[in-house]
Fold this sequence. Notes:
CATH architecture of the largest domain: 3-Layer(aba) Sandwich
Oligomer: single chain
CATH class of the largest domain: Alpha Beta
CATH topology of the largest domain: Trna Endonuclease, Chain: A, domain 1
Helix content: 40-55%
Largest sheet: 5 strands, mixed
Amino acid sequence: MISEYRQWLLDQKYAANTVTAQIHRVARVEEFHGDLDEHYANDRMTTLLALLRYSTEDLRRNRPNPTLIPIEGDLRANLASYRSAVEGYRRFRDSGDLPQGDSDVAQTRSVDVAEDMGHRIGLERDMQAALRLAISQLEPGLVIIDDGVERSVESGFIDITARDATGAIVVVELKAGVASQRAVAQILSYMGDVAVEEDGTPIRGVLIAFEFDSRAKSAARMVPNLVLRKYSVRFSFRDGHA
């Protein structure tokens, strides 16, 4: 199913070099730990993903490589990249699990909801791809450090992980429409997870949306290391006959 996964990654707006790297990593994991589809059938890859986790504490205690994959260099960073690739494959497999209703009306409503979610997620993917190409427009000195894919943490997947000019890790979350209090809670969860994984490293957050509701603004006021940024869309046109 690797070829289908490759196409899925491309459909998710990942850059071609990122897709190649992700395919290489899942193939490497399969080489030493067996077929990913079998892992998915067994427990949705829960055991495999746990095996690939290597924490800051593990690094501090100089614990050995918990996997069978030969790794040279930064053990923690390499295992994180393999884990991210496997998480991506699990998301690909999960994407085939469409909601089912108990009636024709329920099924129609489920399809409508899925389509709405698909449009929103697609727009957020486009936003992420565009921002990755122009990250310095968000803040001068920002450098993306997530290898082109969403970083996997306990709470979910971070849209973009960067490092600022001072060395702090910056968690960037994008919302296509109006961000609510829930979006603030989501990015704070991501920041908390990164703080645990990157013990001692300063963590900041940037939540980007078209607009923020009053509760989101109130919640963010109490978090000094979280900033809200609004995006805008500017159209440009050219002759379609040329």
